[in-house]
Design brief:
The protein has about 220 residues and is of the alpha/beta class. About 45% of the residues lie in helices and about 15% in strands. The protein has helices spanning about 15-30, 55-75, 90, 95-100, 110-115, 115-120, 135, 160-175, 185-195, 210-220; strands at about 5-10, 35, 45-50, 80-85, 105, 120-125, 150, 200, 205-210. Strand 3 (about 45-50), helix 2 (about 55-75) and strand 4 form a beta-alpha-beta unit.
């Protein structure tokens, strides 16, 4: 069984950034990441930034240099360390972070705070990773509120499992069942994702899922 990947988040700045980090951690848990106490034991490191003061940005740049050295020293047997910058600084100097500091992922606050607007519901199978229904549904920003609604597939209800099974079948055209995804490069995974998201589907009037998702995002803009 493939081990869960580990995520480490470092938060800089105000209390709002702390809340944002909790949101991101919660979202990443739903896609299989466990939290790591230190960057040295993580597979992905996110720096949640604040750019109110210049010395805060200098601190982030210095931290990125350390993370880059950590990535270079990483064992060849482990997947590449993913380095990301989120928050205000990520929104303001995105290109510089990618081109000069080797950052893999840059996201401003709006890109993850629209979670509740995009994911109205989530349908999952009965895997143990989805057992914490309340935790997956709970909003971190609004106490006592839900950020989404979680539904489970019924094993013998084809009308519920159809999309899930069809998507699995599409994945298996490219990757045989039982394949360890840790052996796949990021480029290979991205190629499979692009193929699936760009594949015309009869159920969508021969339009792709990628087209429809882009349209929904534009409605939120």
């Amino acid at each position: 069984m493939t081990q869960s990947r580990k995520l480490h988040i470092e938060t800089y700045g105000c209390q709002m950034n702390v809340a944002d980090s909790e949101v991101v951690a919660s979202i990443m848990e739903t896609v299989g990441y466990e939290m790591a106490a230190t960057p040295e034991e993580a597979d992905a490191v996110l720096l949640n930034t604040c750019s109110i003061r210049d010395n805060a940005e200098q601190k982030i740049v210095s931290r990125l240099a350390y993370l880059a050295s950590l990535r270079r020293k990483r064992s060849k047997d482990l997947p590449k360390l993913i380095i990301g910058v989120i928050g205000c600084m990520g929104e303001r100097v995105k290109e510089e972070l990618i081109e000069r500091h080797g950052v893999d992922l840059v996201a401003g606050p709006d890109s993850y705070l629209v979670f509740k607007q995009i994911f109205k519901t989530i349908t999952v199978d009965n895997g143990s990773e989805f057992a914490d229904v309340n935790g997956l549904e709970r909003s971190i920003l609004e106490e006592g509120e839900k950020r989404t609604h979680l539904y489970y597939c019924h094993p013998y209800s084809s009308w519920e499992r159809g999309t899930n099974e069809v998507t699995n079948k599409m994945v298996r055209r490219k990757v045989p069942k039982g394949t360890n995804f840790d052996d796949k490069t990021d480029e290979e995974i991205e190629e499979i994702e692009s193929w699936i998201n760009g594949y015309p589907r009869r159920i969508h009037g021969y339009r792709s899922a990628g087209e429809l998702f882009t349209e929904e995002l534009e409605k939120l803009a």
